[in-house]
Specification:
Radius of gyration of chain A: 19 Å
Oligomer: homodimer
Strand content of chain A: 15-25%
Number of helices of chain A: 8
InterPro entries (chains A, B): FAA_hydro_N, Fumarylacetoacetase-like_C, Fumarylacetoacetase_C_sf
Pfam family, one (chains A, B): FAA_hydrolase
Order of helices and strands of chain A: EEEHHEEEHEEEEHEEHEEEEEEHEHHEE
Shape of chain A: globular
Number of strands of chain A: 21
Protein name (chains A, B): 2-keto-4-pentenoate hydratase
């Protein structure tokens, strides 16, 4: 099943069921007005939503309208929980290597996660607003899951059963604000502005064999200003799977329905700078920081700039048959108007 | 005006207006079913809520019932944003001193804040559940504000106009999980389980002269197992006021209505261990970590244990006339049942 949220009807938007081919959608106010409302009551309403989905896919939905990702907000325009992992250790290792730091051994057994802010996500086609290019604006292409309620102390096996939806994420980062912020000791804050999610959230069965072992085994495709930039497989080199990430969150607290847990920047371990870019036959990158790190390791300093006003990033994932699964995140960087 | 949320009617509970003396309350479903709904539409509904408040205070509310803090959830049982400052630099300095670290000069000009999780707050009389006493269970008594929408880049003066409500907080911390977690570089995560808030949230005018300069100028009273433990004045030694903390959050993102911004552990600068405890004429502490730090500085190691199962903490604030403003947070530590 595929679900989206239109930018109408209030702060949480209006829930629509979207056809598998992303061409049509239908609002389902009689079942659940918003995606959060559906998640709050998932066991009760998901079967009804599936019925609408079946009708849409068979051309029998009477009130279907054309689906336009440009009218979408993030599936959850605001959420109660957004916690992001760094499950692709290669990304962590690379970023640390650039500043001469070793990767602690514990990073292979203890997931690295940060608590994100979730009150004001931006839509999948909204501009990335920043007051200054000097902030070092970067995209981070990721996969995320949305959970049902999870009890404190739940095992990874138990957490696997509580995953309801999958989405793509652009976890925007302000790289030049990170060093000072991390030096303060309390983690990211101003350096992690509002994230954006794919137009559509899908139930795991939509990925078929692409979803197993708690991982999404499909390439995540990133385009920067129209040029292919990355297509690493999200199922490769993911050290911790989603159930393990959720269990990490649940160790000392409950999770409420609608919690979003991110994978961290997707990153496949490759040989080095020259073999890893798409132009050179590699799978490329899901953020600018990685290529800048390769450049720093190999040439002493980064060459690729961070995003400038007007730059555009596109993030999407296709099925094995080449069909668009989530719709594309496509965002342009723009200056804050004062 | 005083508002509370009863544990009935769904995940977000039921909004009630509470009389100034905390004896009676009335549900206001016709105006706003939940506190988040009221905050989403504050300009429109607050005047109507104030009318109910006036009637309650004058004994004219026709459907008033007795107000029982034990039936309350936190005013926002789940929120979209919970960011906590460390505005009392004395607390930060003390905790760092215990581990031999200096306070960076920038800490006096650049607020220290962490992004908290907000999907599953616990009620003001709920147990603090932990799987192990070895986690180093500590309370942290704080003050918090709830904001309206705040635009990205808003000045502190502008932020001051966006404060809608005040609450007390118990920002529970698992001290023994903190060192490893901070060493990983991404800030608190498992070490900050669910927080609890006071039974009642109040509009700033309820504090009279106690609210000025963006600070709450009243003692925050903490009792541990029935013994007075702290009563520092929340208006003293608060290096950054609430408008400054909000502006710090808003530098790179918007805040949505219903965002909760905490002060950090209230802490007044005192002379040292022996002069600072209430028994010795001081104003005491708002967390166990501080007294343990004094003990470490003066005696080489901490003496006071962290909270054990069965221990009880009470946090409240009285007006200058001795009236209970927010109702008391009162929580007992209990083991996780598996």
């Amino acid at each position: 099943m595929k679900l989206a949220t239109l930018k109408q009807g209030g702060r949480d938007g209006t829930l629509v069921v979207v056809s598998r081919d992303l061409t049509r959608c239908q609002s389902v106010g009689g079942i659940a007005r918003t995606l959060q409302a559906a998640l709050d009551d998932w066991d009760k309403v998901s079967a009804e939503l599936e019925l609408v989905y079946d009708m849409l896919n068979h051309g029998h939905a009477r009130h279907a309208i054309a689906f336009d990702p440009a009218l979408c907000h993030s599936p959850l325009p605001r959420a109660y929980q957004w916690a992001d992992g760094s499950a692709y250790i290669n990304h962590v290792e690379l970023v640390r290597k650039a500043r001469g730091a070793e990767l602690p051994e514990s990073f292979h057994t203890d997931p690295l996660m940060y608590q994100g802010g979730s009150d004001s996500f931006i839509g999948p086609r909204d501009a990335i607003i920043a007051a200054s290019e000097d902030w070092g604006i970067d995209f981070e292409a990721e996969v995320a899951v949305v959970t049902d309620d999870v009890r404190m102390g739940a095992s990874a096996d138990e957490c696997a059963q509580r995953i309801r939806l999958l989405m793509l994420v652009n976890d925007v980062s302000l790289r030049n604000l990170i060093p000072n912020e991390l030096a303060k000791g309390f983690g990211f804050f101003q350096s992690k502005p509002a994230s954006a999610f794919s137009p559509v959230a899908v139930t795991p069965d939509e990925l078929g064999m692409g979803w197993h072992d708690g991982r999404v085994h499909l390439p995540l495709r990133v385009t920067l200003n129209g040029q292919p930039f990355g297509c690493p497989n999200a199922g490769v080199d993911m050290t911790f799977n989603f159930p393990q990430l959720i269990a990490h969150v649940a160790k000392t607290r409950e999770l409420e329905a609608g919690s979003i847990i991110g994978s961290g920047t997707v990153s496949n371990k490759q040989g080095g700078l020259y073999g890893s870019s798409i132009a050179n036959g590699g799978v490329g990158y899901c953020c600018l920081a990685e290529v800048r790190t390769y450049e720093t390791i190999e040439g002493g300093k980064p060459q690729t700039p961070f995003m400038r006003f007007g730059d555009r990033v596109r993030i999407e994932m296709l099925s094995e048959r080449g069909e668009d699964i989530f719709g594309a995140i496509e965002q342009q960087v723009a200056p804050l108007e004062r």
